[in-house]
Design brief:
- By secondary structure, the protein is of the alpha+beta class.
- Helices cover 24% and strands 32% of the residues.
- The strands form 2 sheets. A 7-stranded mixed sheet has the order 1-2-3-7-6-5-4, sandwiched between helices. It has a 5-stranded antiparallel sheet with strand order 11-10-9-8-12, with no helix packed on it.
- A hairpin with a 2-residue loop joins strand 6 and strand 7.
- It is globular and about 50 Å long.
Length: 251
């Protein structure tokens, strides 16, 4: 890898903020920051996950930041490809710590051994039929070892490797991987989708899910260009949008 050309070159460091995505949106409403601008916070007191979920992070223990991008020629219907690129960049980064059993749980979580290590929230502004600007929110558990009850099955880099990390020292590596995958996204490299499918959580495994009509068993086969999850249920292929399906724990 090389030092990033633009991601993180402009770095806004905050002690405390409601949400770095909110801060980025306010920034965009008043100016046009350089592409690759990163807003990073020691503490987010109203960090958000996908579609209203809350992201819990212990102050000063994790990497919580937002990245401003201006995708070129990205049709609104293809915007989930950016999500794929960001997920892959995070996996690439975690692989540098020799972690095993890494996967991408659709639509926006990074798992290690069936436990959540990181989450992504991408908010796109659409102009006409194209993406005008993107705010990529990332929360990655690094040094946190204690999590509140009811926060699912979280883990952290420190838990998985039994090591503590200097956040400033490792964030540059993450920026490098984000830039590499973002450039692949800009070039519309088919490798992105191929790599994404190889890492998709529970792909080709018969598992239990909760859908609009109740619980069922199915096999994840793909994620289409619109970002919908393609699940084989019996002899039929069914697609699900965000929040239309949830993963159930193994029996």
């Amino acid at each position: 890898m090389h030092n990033p050309l633009f991601i993180g070159k402009v770095l806004i460091e905050l002690d405390k903020v409601d949400s770095t995505n909110n801060y980025a949106r306010n920034l965009l409403s008043n100016s046009k920051p350089m592409e690759g601008t990163v807003i990073i916070a020691q503490e987010q007191f109203a960090g958000r996950g996908q579609i209203g979920n809350t992201w819990f992070a212990e102050p000063g223990q994790n990497l919580t930041f937002s990245l401003i991008l201006y995708p070129k020629d990205c049709h609104a219907e293809q915007q989930f490809l950016l999500n794929k690129a960001v997920c892959l960049a995070m996996i690439d980064f975690l692989k540098t710590f020799t972690l095993a059993d890494l996967s991408i749980k659709w639509p926006n979580d990074i798992f290690c051994k069936n436990r959540k290590l990181a989450g992504i929230l991408i908010e796109n502004t659409i102009q006409g039929s194209f993406v005008k600007e993107s705010i990529v929110g990332i929360g990655m558990n690094i040094n946190q070892r204690n999590f509140p009850e009811g926060s699912g099955r979280p883990s952290s880099l420190s838990i998985e490797t039994n090591t503590s990390y200097d956040l400033k020292a490792i964030r540059l590596t993450l920026f490098e991987h984000l830039e590499y995958r973002y450039l692949q996204f800009q070039q519309k490299k088919p490798q992105l989708h191929q790599d994404y499918l190889q890492l998709l959580y529970q792909k080709d495994v018969l598992a239990s899910y909760q859908g609009p009509a109740g619980q069922f068993q199915g096999i994840i086969k793909d994620v289409d260009s619109h970002g919908k999850l393609c699940v084989q249920v019996g002899d039929e292929m069914t697609t699900f949008a965000f929040k239309e399906i949830s993963f159930l724990p193994p029996a």
